[in-house]
Amino acid sequence: MAASKLFQPTKIGDLKLEHRVVLAPLTRFRGTAEHVHTDLGVEHYRQRASSPGTLLITEGTFITGKAGGYAHVPSIETDEQLAAWKKVTDAVHEKKSFIFAQLWALGRTADPKVLESEGFELVGPSDIPAAGKSTPRPLTTEEVKEYVQFYAKAADNAVHRAGFDGIELHSANGYLLNQFLHETVNNRTDEYGGSIENRVRFVLEVLEASVKAVGASKVGIRFSPWEFFNDIRINDPIPLYTHLVTRIREQFPDLAYIHVTEPRVSGDTPRDPKGESNDFIRAIWSPRPLISAGGYGRDLAIEWADTKGDIIAFGRHFIANPDLPRRLKENIPLNAYDRSTFYSPLSPKGYIDYPFADESKL
């Protein structure tokens, strides 16, 4: 099994990874009330960088205050926030691993009470609420263009001030970029709504601005074409994502990677994919790097790395196993994860206290 592609070197952008096991982006709510990461975050990422040449993707990180709306999620805007992230990236680099910041804007999924407490309002592409949620105010055309610059500034902050190796644009799971893509959420009549060509415009403009800020080799993007989470499902995502990924291949052929969530999961819940597949994206994007996340164990990860060439992102297993790349390669039994501790604000429990296979590595 150690001969599997999963355990062989590969490249993402200018980075040489020693294997294809990646830390998936994982919301954990360990930031302060001011959206500043703490020393808990430094230790969390340091532990998961313990196998040299590992790529870590951070939890979703707010690009600016008004793009937020969840408590205890870190941002990447103020001097204090950037200084805290620099401690994280330094810790990862000391372990000779790599780290990308996932850049996040919530849009209509934000908590209005959190937004109000911080002086902001609930916004989205349209006045269409998610099921059971409040109705957002549609962003004006000018505000959409302002958000493009928020993303570019966040990318610049991440790479040039906080020391990240690159950034991932979160265009999945029903958040703001994803909301613009899907006609069930976006009923705009300006240049950002209507046709597929218009609905992908915001994503492509954010990509272009981010690439201009830090370079294509330092930019990745995440999609979830088959997602139900956050009331984002569309009947047939293939035409939309075929068009979008084709445009990305044409405009940004040197992009670091595309990251997809598999239809085996919806959010963090397993489901039956019922014949759904991201292979149409692989066919367009290949042979460029593609990261795949969702429902992977060791055997399936080996199979997909070997047959599809994917780089495999692990979430729950990487939470519980800070030395996951080593455990997978050597087939060491995995620690069980405790879902009850996944989202415990500012708590070390279930965050930095999972044991290594070899405790001396602590």
Quick structural overview:
InterPro entries: Aldolase_TIM, OxRdtase_FMN_N, Oye-like. The chain has 362 residues and is α/β, with parallel strands linked by helices.
Q: What does this protein look like?
A:
The protein is of the alpha/beta class. It has one domain (5-361): TIM Barrel (Alpha-Beta Barrel). The chain contains twelve helices and 14 strands. The strands form four sheets. The chain has an eight-stranded parallel barrel with strand order 3-4-5-8-9-10-13-14, surrounded by four helices. The chain has a two-stranded antiparallel sheet with strand order 1-2. Strand 1 (10-12) and strand 2 form a beta hairpin. Helix 1 (39-48) packs parallel to helix 2, helix 4 packs parallel to helix 7 (201-214) and helix 8 (238-251) packs parallel to helix 9 (279-285). The two termini are 27 Å apart. The relative contact order is 0.14.
Strand content: 15-25%
Rounded to an integer in angstroms, the radius of gyration calculated over CA atoms is 19 Å
The major pleated sheet works out as: 8 strands, parallel, barrel
What's the average pLDDT?
A: 95
With strands numbered from the N-terminus, the spatial order across the biggest sheet is 3-4-5-8-9-10-13-14
CATH topology: TIM Barrel
Task: Work out the count of structural domains.
Answer: 1
Q: Uncertain runs with pLDDT below 50, 5 residues or more?
A: none
Looking at the overall shape, the CATH architecture is: Alpha-Beta Barrel
Classify the helix fraction into a percent range.
25-40%
